[in-house]
Amino acid sequence: MKNILFATDFTNSTTPALDWVKLFARQYGSIVTVLHVFQPMIPDTTLPVMGDMGAGVAASHDIEEISRQNLTEMVTRLSAEGINCQSEWRTGAVEDEILGAAREYQVDLIITGRSDISTIFDRLAGSAAADVAIDAPCPVLVIPIPHDGVGATRPTQIRSIVYTTQLEFDENHILRQASALAQTFNASLKLMKVDASNQPNVNADDQILRDIRREFGYENIHVDKVESRTVSGGLLEYLEKHDTDLLIMTTRQRGFLDGLLNPSLTERMVLRSPIPLLVFHAKDGY
């Protein structure tokens, strides 16, 4: 992970995400590209106008100037802290510009914050973080605003990693990366499966586990299993009861209609996970 893209909107999700950028950049000696995607205010000409339409244009210009200043100051601070970094300014649709920058810079990891999603409207509207996590050409680390029931801040560390799997596919190519990450940070790595009543097993768990343990060694693989009505519900219940610093999931390419009618588990967890979530992408054919 030598080449990191940090996408920021300078909201309250920036600070916790920036802490994780520093953690990874220092651990891997990475170069960090700090990206801000600006969305100018465009007046709706179909609505009645009261007052000066130019006021909206002026406000948009002021916001742009403030955002440019924020970007410059962030890169300056990171450089002063010894982080090798550069800035990138883009205008357009947030998801498209983040993905475009990721491809142009051939990044190894995208890190982005997730705004506090607290209302049903927020969940229905979705999140740029979820879209990027699903469609990115590289792993994506999504950082929520860290808090628990009383608002305590979580430390920025990687000591305990949970890799969630349904044991239905060969995921050893992703597990190798998860294992390498755990070794780099000297962290524990657990596999976790939710036996959900609404999702029957397609393949027997034993065969997949044998393949995993054949490569990684029986003593190196610990699997926790929990029962729940839904997979996402089981994951959230597990995270409430177990001290976990990082959750890792794998997402697969899905058809448009399938994604529209049945949003992916990964997308749901990007929006709901209370801890940082690292999303890997399965190879074609898995």
TrEMBL record:
Gene3D superfamilies tied to this protein: HUPs (3.40.50.620)
Cited SUPFAM superfamilies: Adenine nucleotide alpha hydrolases-like
Domain UspA: 1-144, 211-281
Family: Belongs to the universal stress protein A family.
Identification of the protein by name: UspA domain-containing protein
Source organism phylogeny: Bacteria, Pseudomonadati, Bacteroidota, Cytophagia, Cytophagales
